[in-house]
Specification:
Layout: E1 5-9, H1 13-25, E2 29-34, H2 37-47, E3 51-55, H3 63-71, E4 78-82, H4 85-91, E5 97-99, H5 104-118
Parallel strand pairs: 1-2, 1-3, 3-4, 4-5
Helix pairs in contact: 2-3
Length: about 120
């Protein structure tokens, strides 16, 4: 898998930090870890990431809404992380969903699926 620039949208700082470390260990570059819908939209516009990894349920805003806003300017491969996959599936039946907790293999598979959907 090629090295990706990834925007992580996660409102739990420890989870964001751990995910960033795992992604770095996989050879990817995390351009930012943000915790709000507004920051996700702004950082995506500024940095044009190769991939978005988005917590569907943010404390401030909504991860699904953030992705919807970002996609209005062009497609960006993305996947959602959540503790409630069914809730996300009801809103986005075609979404790539990584249910928490997950391991590195599941993360790598979800990334590959998100990229394959783009190609």
């Amino acid at each position: 898998m090629r090295k990706l620039s990834i925007l992580v949208v996660e409102d739990e700082p420890i989870i964001g930090m751990l995910l960033s470390e795992v992604l770095g260990g996989m050879g990817h570059k995390v351009i930012a870890v943000v915790g709000t819908e507004g920051a996700a939209v702004a950082m995506s516009a500024e940095y044009l990431p190769d991939l978005l990894i988005v917590d569907a349920g943010l404390t401030s805003g909504n991860g699904i809404s953030a992705v919807d806003t970002i996609l209005k300017t062009g497609f960006v491969p993305h996947l959602f992380t959540t503790g409630d996959a069914m809730k996300v599936r009801l809103q986005r039946p075609d979404a790539i969903i990584l249910e928490k907790p997950f391991n590195e293999t599941e993360l790598a598979d979800a990334i590959a699926s998100a990229l394959a959907r783009h190609d």
